[in-house]
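We close this part of the discussion by returning to an individual protein. The encoding preserves chain order, so positions in sequence and tokens coincide. The sequence in question and its structure tokens are set out directly beneath this paragraph:

===
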Amino acid sequence: MNESSPHALAVLLEDDPDAAAALAVQLRVLGVETRYCRHSHHLVGEVLAKSPQLVVMGLAFGEQDGIAMLRRLAECRYRGRVLLLSGVERKVARIAERLGEALGLNMLPSLDKPMRLGELRERLEGLEGEASPGPAEIRPPFFHQDELERAFDRQELILHYQPQFDLASRRLSGVEALVRWNHPEAGLLVPGDFLPLLTPAQSRLLTRRVLQLAMTDAGRWREAGLNLSLSMNVTPDDLLCPELVALVREGWHSAGGAPLVLEITETASMEDELLGSEVAARLHLTGLEVSVDDFGVGFSSLARLQLLPISELKVDRSFVSRLHEDLQDAAIVEAVALLGRRLGIRVVAEGVEDLACLAALEHYGCTHVQGFGLARPMPSEGIMALAHGESPLTPSWGRSSADSSCK
């Protein structure tokens, strides 16, 4: 931000006047004018009256805590940014951040007390010059069921692939199939834009479509001498569908037996554990593999490991992304990697954006990595070029211990 005259407005809620005054000075240096509130009911009034670009507030103050205030801001349809001054245990601050995001608020990473100017500047990057946010508009769903039906008929649903790398060999070892909607007007859409709108029948049709496209690409890679493992996501409904076994077997053999991994999202429910286990067991007997995706963010992790023939765990990106900053996240990644070693299964770290964490991941025992810092999802043609080019896992990132790379 430009350190000049104020161009943006922040409303500050803090019960400590000294801390509030210090923060107001820092914001002023960063070009942000401040309106100070000492009581929670004043904050709502200021937000409604002034429509500030930023709300800064502590989590613990007065009779109404900061988490309750997040709900009040969401009820007001506040569209600006929200910065929390934690001053509390990191777990509590993370809960508040996730709640704010779930409520539709534009949450910035929280700031510990005492505040440092450099950290504050980093949080507020791009705030200067933003228009004051008005009330959020309530829009109807952008897509309709008939559009989704046409998308299947016109073959607008395509695949991109997230590359996965082996930490031991430093080479591309596999890909994860990710569906995209090549919408004729809106452009390339990610799953979150349309998957929630699918009917159960469309969801099953999509699984079939993804499998067919992925197997076709895998067969093409295999003919070119590239043998990669292929991962694809399946829902609990997919896993509970007995015909999945026949469908996967057919596609798997047509692709020449390319290594296929079916990923089950850990947070997804499975009403009939026995039937799901039966399908997973039959797939395993066929020679296919089952992976638990987003491991560590659900509530049935160990039960799944006991019930299903798991070959792989994927550590959720929320732990990997904060490896340097949070010792508890680092401890969780290390524990999952140790669990994988003891069970004799692969451990994949998702969401790698900073290559500096690779040494720690290898030290902990993770076997594979993927993330935007290594390679972004790409069409099938890009996978061939990536496989024959220089690996992003070059020796330059080193093999230093976790002590030096994850402080």
